[in-house]
Write a structure and sequence with these properties.
The chain is an alpha/beta fold and 550 residues long. The chain has helices spanning 17-27, 44-51, 67-76, 94-103, 115-200, 205-231, 244-250, 252-259, 280-297, 315-320, 342-347, 365-375, 428-440, 451-459, 479-489, 525-544; strands spanning 8-13, 33-38, 55-59, 85-89, 107-110, 240-243, 263-268, 275-278, 302-312, 327-335, 379-385, 389-399, 420-424, 444-448, 466-470, 494-499, 507-508, 511-512, 518-520. The protein is built from 16 helices and 19 strands. The strands form 4 sheets. Strands 6, 7, 8, 9, 10, 11 and 12 form a 7-stranded mixed sheet that branches. The chain has a 5-stranded parallel sheet with strand order 2-1-3-4-5, with helices on both faces. A 5-stranded parallel sheet has the order 14-13-15-16-19, sandwiched between helices. Helix 8 (252-259) runs parallel beside helix 9 and helix 14 (451-459) runs parallel beside helix 15 (479-489).
Length: 550
Amino acid sequence: MLIKKIRSRVLLIDDDSLAAEMIRHMLGDSADISLQYVSDARQALAAAAEFKPTVILVDLMMPLIDGFRLIRQFRAEAETEDIPVILLSSEDGPERKVQGFAEGANDYLVKWPNKLELAARVRYHSSAYLAHRERDDAFISLRESQAALLERTRQLEESQAALHHAQKMEAVGKLTGGVAHDFNNVLQIIGGNLQLLKYDTADNEAAQRRIAAASKGVARGARLAAQLLAFGRRQPLQPTVIHIGALLRSMDDMLRRAVGSSIDIELAVPPDAWNTLADASQLENVILNLAINARDAMHEKGRLRIEAANVTLDEQEATALGLDSREFVSLSVIDNGEGMPPDVAERAFEPFFTTKPNGQGTGLGLSMAYGFIKQTGGHIEIDSVPGSGTTIKALLPKACEPVHEPQPLADRPTAGGQERILIVEDEPDVRATTAELLASLGYQVLQAENAHAALTLLEKGEKVDLIFTDVVMPGPVHSVELARQAQVLIPGVQVLFTSGYTENGIVHQGRLDPGVSLLNKPYTEESLARKIRQLLCRDTDAKEGGGSAG
C-alpha cells in the first residue's frame, strides 16, 4: 500500500540554542521535515501564525514563559488550538507529564530521544493534524455546498413560481383578449342597431327610455372589454411624454370626488421627478382604479398617499424583473386600510379575482393596471400587511424628452357628409349596421367582406374618399396591405382602422404605429361621425395647402 508523503513543519521554541542545534541535527536526515526555531517564547504565537507549523516542540523550562504557560497560550488561540504540541523536558517524572497533558500537550519526550523516534513522532502527529484539518475542511465545504444547494433550490423554486405565474397570466391574457374581440363585435352589433332603432322610434317615449337603458348596458360592456384588453396587453397605446406631477395635479379634483371627503389625500412628487412615456388617458384610469380600491380597503375612511420618485435599478434587479431599462419613475399608491393576506396579494392581479361582496366590483381594476404597466414596459407589485395597509408600486420607464403640450383640435362638425366611404368588415351584421349608420349620416357607402374584395373594387376603378376597415380579417390580403395599396391607387385616400382586438398589423410593442388612425369597437354613431369627419377634413386641409394625404 502506498503511503501518502506528508511534509511536516516543525516549530521549536527553546531558549537554549544548543538544544536547537541538537534537534536540527536529529531531523536533518528527514527531507520531509522542515524546522523553524524561536528562542524567545514571547514571539512564539507570532511565529506560529507566520510559519503555520504542523507540530510544535516546546521546551518545558524557559526563563520568561515556561512550557506549561506557553501551551495554554497556544490552546487559547483559534489558529493554534488544534496544532499538536510535544513537550520537551529533561525530567521524566510522572507529575510533569500529567500536568503537561492537562495543559493541552499531545506528547511528552524526555531529552534526548532517539532521532528515529523523534522523527516518527513528528510525522505521526503531523499526519493526524493534517487529516483532522482535511476532515474539518471537508465538513465545512460540505455544509457550504449544502447551504449553496439549498439557496439555489430556493432561487430555482422562486424562478419556477414566477415563470408559472407569468405563463398563467400570459395564457389568461390571450384568452381574455380573444374573448374581448368577439365581445366587442357583439356589442358593436347591439349598439349600432340600438342607435338605428332610436331614429325609428323617435316619437315613442317608452321605446326611447328602453333604448337609452340598453345603450348604457352596451357602454358598460365596452368598459369591461377594455379592461380585459388592458389585462391581456392587447389595447393599442398612444404613449406621450408625461410629467407625473402635472398629471396627478390635473387629477386632484377627480380623485377627491372619487374617494370621498372622509379620506385624506396626499400627493407627493419631488420637484426633480423625471418625465415618463405612457398613454396618459390609460394611466389616469389606472391611478383612479387604484385610488378607488384603496378607498374600499379603508372602508371610506383613512389616509391615501400617492407619491412618485426617481428609481435607478442595477442590472441584476432589472434582469430579475424582466425589464429592458434601468431608469424609472415610480408611482406608489399607499393606503392605511385593512391590507391583504399573502394568498390574496398573490392573486390580486388575476382578472375577475376579488374579495369584495357580489355587485361591488368586477375584479378587473388591478388586472387592468397590471396589463397596462407591463405593456408600457414597466413593473407593478403589491406590498401589503394585514391590518396595516397596502402599497401598490408601479415603475414607469423614464423619458428623456421634454413634455409637449398637445395642440387643440380645430372645431369640426360631427355631422355627416356626401363623400364615398368603403366599409371593409368580415362580420356581416357589423358591416350592415355600420353601413346604415354611415348612410344615415349622408355618406355614399360601398361594402366589402374582406381586404381582398376591397382591393378588387379599387383596382376596378372605384373611387372613394375614405376606407373604414377592420384590422383582424381572414383572407390573403391583410388590412395594412390594403391601406398601402389603396393609397397607391388613390393618392390621398384616408384610412380609418377599427377593431375590438388589435394585433401586430398596426400595433407594435403595444403602441399604435405613427400616422395610423384607429377607432376602437364598440363605437357610437357620434364617435364614428367625429372620427371620419376629422380625417376627411384633414384631407381637405392638405389639398387646400397644396399637399396630399398619405
